Amino acid sequence: AVVGVYGALRSIYTANSFFFLFTDMRSDNTSVYSPGGAAGPLSKSEFDDFTLTANTEHISAWWNSAYRVIGRCNDVLEKLEASDIAQNLKDEYTGELKTLRASAYFNLVRLFGGVPLILGRFENIDDAYQKGRDSVDDIYTQIVSDLTSATSLLTTNKNTGDKTGRVDKGIAHTLLADVYLTRKNFPLAATEFKKVIDLNQYDLLPNYQTVFAQGQQGNIETVWQIYFLTGVAGLGNHFPIYYAPLNSQNVLTQPGTGNPFGWCSPTNDIYNAYDPTDVRRNSIAVGFTGQNGVYYDYKYIKNYVDLAAGTGSGLSGKDWYVYRYADVLLRYAEALNEVEGPANAYQYINAVRDRAGLADLSGLDKDQFREAVYEEERLESPFEGKRWFDLNRTDRTLQVMNAKITNFDDPNTVGPAAAIQEHQKLLPIPELIRSSSPALDQNPGY
Questions:
Q1: Is it the case that residue 395 has pLDDT exceeding 90?
Q2: Nearest 5 degrees, angle CA 343-CA 344-CA 345?
Q3: What is the pTM of this model?
Q4: d(C-alpha 210, C-alpha 392), whole Å
Q5: How far is CA 170 from each of CA 142, 275, 305, rounded to the nearest angstrom?
Q6: Cα separation, 289 vs 291, whole angstroms
Q7: Number of Cβ atoms within 10 Å of the Cβ of 53
């Protein structure tokens, strides 16, 4: 039953839920790129150019996917409590389930604001339809409660035996730390991130490009990955065909998978943000030669190219990083700087910069260090579902995005052709959900 909850995570990050639309696409890191200036597929471009509505495709699908995870967690937790399973296993499973539920609510509250807080099964379906939205504070209170409990129940069994890919103590502490960072409780965030570091079970891979190579499931840098299985329908993902640009079939994707969509292309803005000597810029390719011998100067993300045998559409085994150890180091540096200034935070940001081939930072004041770590977070994990959340939690969304307004007809643009508004930091509550649940108030502006 617990494994069945993990199975529901696939629909959060791939399939028809398109997590990258909600995170990377709305940021300045990626865009829908349709050569010739024509708009991309409407349901994708609406995320890119901030024209989405409560009826936009994918919002209701993702909402349902998140609550599917929550519902399965609730069901198993209820049955588990009364079961005769050995107490040590019951504790472990409870910690896993509470972490998975907290993760789903963490994504929901950051994307939609207050949402219905559901912690058990409704006995009457009409009661479910009458359930309204709980406050942002109430959602975060439950998230912290779940994760605090989970950190006390879980063990440090990172990627051992049949536990590989499952939630452990390091994941729970990392998620709790990120929650505290989002809530601007910097002392507690620093404390939790330091606990992850002190577990001594993670390290940076020596080569940045290796992080995204084939066969890196459960590597030493992995804090939490969503696992996929190569070549098995329903257990693989669609990342290669979603991310590869148009006209790259049979070159950047397996033969027979059809023309890739180019739904998530790196912007010129993120490419130009890298120092030319930064090895991380090599994750962005500037073009390719198609089967027809024509060179296309379409940028694309190398990380999700998968040419392994059997990796047709929906069959890729490329995994999705929720957290890497590099994220832990940078976020710890950010929190530590807010608590006590940069003196003791340099070693953590510089460890990440060293791997990127960049010089160490020194001599910065608190404000300068803050800006430096913000930029380092962007450059380290530009295509892993973090940028939009980072802009929002640091109160920079409008400042950053509205300084980069571009014509949507330009290739690889940031996206918005006009200034975005405060309400657009959140998504609308999907109308398909509200149509049967009248107690769900819509977010302002939609």
A1: yes
A2: 95
A3: 0.96
A4: 30
A5: 19, 32, 29
A6: 7
A7: 11
